[in-house]
Amino acid sequence: MPTVHGFSETFPNELLLEIFGSLGRFDLFQVVQTSRQFHCLALRLLYRDVIWQDPRRYLHSIPVWKGSPNFKDATRSVVIGVCEERYDHIVAATVVEPDGSVRRHVEMPGLAALLASAQPYEAHRLTRHKIDRAASSSLFNVMIQHLSSFTALNSLIFKKAIVPVTFYEILQALPSLRILRLETCSITSASTAPPADLGVFPITELTLLDLDVHRSSPHPLMLATSRNLRHLCCDMSACAFRMFTKKVPGGSTPVVPSTLDSIHFHMPEKRFWPANMLDFSENSYYFIEFLKLCPNMRHITIGGFIPSISLPNDIVPLLQFYQGPILAAASFARGRSILGVSLCDLDTGIDLWEWIQALQLLGECQSAATIHQLSAAVPAWDDEILLAVVKLFPEMRKLSISYNKGRLSETPSPGPCKLSVDTEAESELKGSIGSWDRHCPNLREVQLLPCFVWRRADNRKGEVTAIWAKRPYQMLPSSESDSEAGLGAEEGIFKVRYALSGSDFYENTLQLTIINRLPSIRFRIMLQRLAPETVDTIIDFLHADQQALFACSLTAKQWLPSTRFHIFSKVHLRPANIQTFADIVEAPCSSLPRMLRHLLINAFSEVMLSLGDRNALQLLHRVVPLLHEVDHLHICNSPKVESDLFTKFENIHHLTLSQLSYGSMDDVLRLVYSFPLLKSLGIKNLHITKPASERSVYQHHPGPKSLVISCLKGKPATCNLLLEWIAALNPIPEIQALNFSLYDANADSSWQARAVRLSGSAPIRSIDVDMNSFGYDVGKEVPYLDLSHYSNLRTLRVYAICLPSSLPPFTHRPLTLLSQITSSRVEEITFSFSICSLDSLKEFVVTRVSQAFRNHEFPQLHRLLLEIKDPSANGNLQDREKLGADLRKADFGHLETRRILYVHWCHPPLEN
Fold first, then answer.
1. Distance between terminal CA atoms of the chain?
2. Which of 77, 17, 81, 25 is nearest to 50 (CA)?
3. Distance CA 396, CA 372 (A)
4. Into how many domains does the chain fold?
5. Of 143, 231, 364, 585, which residue is 20 to 30 A from 556 by alpha carbon distance?
6. In Å, how far from its chain's centre is CA 677?
7. pLDDT per residue as tens digits for the range 229-251
């Protein structure tokens, strides 16, 4: 049966999938439950990221996988935390079978005795993966086979699991795998041997953390020899720098991939490092030797602790970003053009004094002038931190500081350089601070002058005295909302800005973040932003919806440039707004002239000019020469504008003339032929007094020979003159829309005969019929209109149909047009009702329209639109639903299964 739809353009599924792809799993769950359409689209994305951590949940998802086998192609990442039942490991108390049944784990005989006699580390290895439920061997094999079927898999993560014995066979079955991570995993002695050449795997990112590899099993660190590897993350359980640098007797040393440009080493904590300096030198030797093998390294991240090391300048010369302990930052920055530094010593217990000293060493390096980004985690806040950064890093662009203790105090100074010289009197005052320093070790600030204070930095451990610095002091209004946790957000930002004002640092800084890391502070959750390409696609789709574009422009600052192009691409220029438009266009560096593509010049008539701005014509002559990018020009009801003004538009491809009066056809054609690039021409309701006197001059195309007539609408005399000109062109242009309206039924029909003759040479694809033009005299047929001659017709629109409460005999006339159609290419038919009632509409469609469609075949018809413009026929929601149900019961013959019937209500429903 035909289905009644609301007449609205649906959002493309491709764009919906792109938007859903940027959402998190929780949001996708909400989307799936919204509608059936969203369920079908988003359900596939839910299985894009698969997590198997419980065998029972995997069993619950098996019916979905079997019902939708194409989901396997959509899966991009898999996280496996399921362990197989093993007799040599205590992994679980219960075991899950493929049928969902649960049984107790059967331990290997003598396992308890083995655990009692094993070393502590060995006992930990046997029990490190103990979980609630494990998968039986048969169920685990099903999971592995299922995993191998994900041919589009991009990321594979084993977490807190025993790596399958067929691990390398799984990798060979995944040709698209790029990211591989093994975290807190064990590799047993039963693991199969890897292929001879591990470099063939397409892995680009490898993570190996907290591994327990049996001494007889191959170590997965050999995967680091992949030829496409770009990022390597490992700890001491997979010591990469020892593997690539240690000489193997009688064998070859693995080669570091030339594509490796990022490494992340998890070093031991400070308390686990050897106290003997010789042992430390041996450990750092392999690390430095490994860096010598990485000439293309650009990112180095070190977790844990590493002391200052001696790193020659020729090692990693392309290094750009360093993240790690501050003590080693100067070693990596010295002699290299470092762009970004992230210092994270918060967990290692370094005190503030050592932190500032190490920061000074970093600032003394040659690369300090190139550092644009600095991120630091300090144990406690001190105002001297900002001052040190201002002085040491003049090219800083982004600064992020997080701290645990303290708070932003009073406003620091604009810069320490202006206060470096103390007078003799001030030196004496400063000397008097020493007694306070000895007896008050927690004293941080002393004020001895009206506008200055002396502040103390943390003294080094074991030293009594500290460094005091003179700073200007200005009390800011205190906020009652200040607490020990930190300042209010607005005041804190103001104080930081005041501290940096007057320095080059503040003028160059693009981003500044200062975070108090106390647990009581609530952090804002930054929502994941859509990709710029997705935003542009959404805005491009909403090109014609001005209200939606206005909402997009107010959504975010990043959306404004894209929406401005669409909002200002079409401008309706009239005397009432010409002054505002001129102010915008003539403003310095205005970008509006470059965006404007469609221009409508309307209502520049004597009446409208008298009601509006009398200088509108002068303003129009000023702004038109500035609009070089306009390619769509529509001139409507503007007789006061001289035609010579329009010739200043140089790139017009599409021209529309409507509601204009011309003395002769020569004036019309002279304007049309002034646009040499014209591709389409639309004529609507022109008044032309005389025909062209020089017809031979206008027998060629005004622009390219691909010119088309987008619309031809008007009275018979005007249409006759235009059709006569069109017929003389070679080749005859295509007429896309022909409007039979606004002419007298008793007028000469010669112009329609000429249109029929043209339809044989140039296809007429669209015809509009206004039923008001024909009158409703009973028994009088539709004059001069026979659609049987238009064999290329695609669209028929019948307007102003009147349906009184009781259908009179003449209501068959709109359907007479259907019986005349001989074109088999009709795609869309529209009936627009200006006067009707719900009952008459129902009778018209169910009785008359359905009968007409049963008698005539339209194989390519995809839309039958009923447009209701009569406000009295709106009805409430119940009436509309009842009408829709009645329309679905109509017998449309061969169209029943195509669901082409649409109803568009031009007015909102009435309230109940």
1. 29
2. 77
3. 4
4. 2
5. 585
6. 37
7. 999 999 888 887 778 877 655 55
Which residues, other chains included, contact 893 with Cβ-Cβ below 8 Å and sequence gap of 6+?
A: 850, 853, 854
The β-bridge relationship of strands 452-456 and 468-472 is: antiparallel
Can you spell out the DSSP letters for 663-697?
EEHHHHHHHHTT-TT--EEEEES-EEEE--S-GGG
Position 807 in a domain: yes
**Among residues 413, 438, 469, which one ends one of the domains?**
469
Q: Comparing 13 with 439, which gets the higher pLDDT?
A: 13
pLDDT surpasses 80 at 322? yes
Contacts of residues 454-458 at CB distance under 8 Å and 24 or more positions apart, as own/partner, are: 454/430, 455/383, 455/384, 457/352, 457/353, 457/356, 457/382, 457/384, 458/351, 458/352, 458/353, 458/356, 458/382
What share of the chain in percent tops pLDDT 70?
Answer: 72
Would you state the structure tokens that stand for residue 333, as one six-digit string? 């920055």
Determine the pLDDT at residue 232: 93
pLDDT at 422: 52
Q: Any residues with CB less than 8 A from the CB of 113 and at least 6 apart, and which? A: none
Number of C-beta neighbours around residue 390 at 10 A: 25
pLDDT score at 486: 35
- Between residues 9 and 131, the one the model is more confident about: 131
CB burial of residue 420 (10 Å; 0-12, 13-18, 19+): exposed
CA 420, 421, 424, 425: dihedral to nearest 10 degrees?
A: -60
Tokens encoding 297: 């390294």
Specify if 902 maps to a domain.
yes
Contacts of 802-807 with CB under 8 Å at 24 or more apart are: 802/771, 802/776, 802/833, 802/834, 802/835, 802/836, 803/833, 803/835, 803/836, 803/837, 803/840, 803/841, 803/844, 804/835, 804/837, 804/840, 805/837, 805/839, 805/840, 806/840, 807/840, 807/843, 807/844, 807/848
The structure tokens listed for 826 are: 């009709």
Residues 687-717 have pLDDT tens digits of 888 887 776 677 788 877 778 888 888 877 7
Query: In whole angstroms, what is the distance from residue 110 CA to residue 902 CA?
Result: 77
Is 60 exceeded by the pLDDT of residue 13?
yes
Which one of 60-64, 76-80, 277-281, 412-416 scores highest in mean pLDDT? 76-80
* Domain contains 296: no
pLDDT band at residue 903 using 50, 70 and 90 as cut-offs: confident
Q: Which of 143, 184, 190, 134 lies closest to 165, judged by CA?
A: 190
Say what the pLDDT of residue 231 is.
94
Query: Smallest Cα–Cα separation from 600: which of 569, 629, 628, 573?
Result: 573
User: Does 786 map to a domain?
Assistant: yes
